[in-house]
Amino acid sequence: MALIKSISGIRGTIGGKTGDNLTPLDVVRFSAAYGSWLAGKIANRTVVVGRDGRMSGPIVQELVINTLLSLGFNVVDIGLSTTPTVELAVTGEKAAGGVIITASHNPREWNALKLLNSDGEFISAEDGALVLQKAEKEDFNFCPVDKLGTYTFNDTYLARHIDAILAYPLVKAENIKKKNYKVVVDAVNSTGAIFIPPLLKRLGVDDVIVLNGDVDGRFAHNPEPLPENLSGLSAAVRKHKADLGIAVDPDVDRLCFVCEDGSMFGEEYTLVAVADYVLSHKPGNTVSNMSSTKALKEITLKHGGEYFPSAVGEVNVVKKMKEVNAVIGGEGN
């Protein structure tokens, strides 16, 4: 069992001894630390909270929400969601920040709090260190009863996220529909089941087969979308004579494709393939972390742009993209 404190949040296994695992007291302490840091940084008192489909999700979510309410924050609960959707909701609500309750690709006994700033981005290393300091000192000041925050439930953001994708000029749903694709999706018993199939339908893919579509957090296999965990998806693609297989992790911020013959397309090349398409319509600079394939650099140079490496981590990729005005960036996985 474990509790891992980092600049981007806190993650750990559910149950066990306080301070050694992600217990209810640890959830409250780190939620209070994040809220207290946020209160000292910005006057805005709105925070967005969303979660993936993990078994412990409802308990952790209630603890996070009620702690933030006790600090005087107005919480917008978007319910079952994806990490990218919560990020989008922070800017959509013009919120001070957001909390994503997910342990990403970790097994079902894990959960975590991922912390966002007002731009819907993961908080910086410097800000993360300040949150950890507040948690260590338990430097919290809760509100009196007449200044408690308000609670709002808003489950529209998955649909709004799909609308935003369809509105992107380089997404050509009419061209996709003409192909009459058949797609198999492995949703690994989490929120990919309520996001990926509706997205595909809106993109014009009517024949969608969903594996592990019950959002109960009882992951049917190791949830990390690696080839060794996707034999079932590979077999289903061949069985149904599908054109494509799609696997996501529990919070839908990792993506893996399976080709029509059941072979893996490879996470490393997903970003490269998308960048090749984007750069052919919108030339410019690109960014990926230093552990990613060199193919992105080659593609970027082919299209007349400049490639820039960043440190590992989404927050570092985003920071570098802003610095160099990149048109696309990402991590190999």
Describe this structure in words.
- This protein is an alpha/beta fold.
- The chain contains 11 helices and 14 strands.
- It is 36% helix and 21% strand.
- Strand 12 (285-289), helix 10 and strand 13 form a beta-alpha-beta unit.
- It has helices at 24-39, 57-70, 83-92, 125-137, 157-167, 173-178, 196-202, 231-239, 267-281, 295-302, 314-324; strands spanning 3-6, 9-13, 46-51, 74-80, 97-101, 110-116, 151-153, 182-186, 207-211, 244-248, 255-258, 285-289, 307-310, 326-330.
- The mean pLDDT is 95.
- The chain folds into 3 domains: 3-156, Alpha-D-Glucose-1,6-Bisphosphate, Chain A, domain 3 (3-Layer(aba) Sandwich), CATH 3.40.120.10; 172-265, Alpha-D-Glucose-1,6-Bisphosphate, Chain A, domain 3; 269-330, Alpha-D-Glucose-1,6-Bisphosphate, subunit A, domain 3 (Alpha-D-Glucose-1,6-Bisphosphate, Chain A, domain 3, 3-Layer(aba) Sandwich).
- The strands form 3 sheets. It has a 7-stranded mixed sheet, sandwiched between helices.
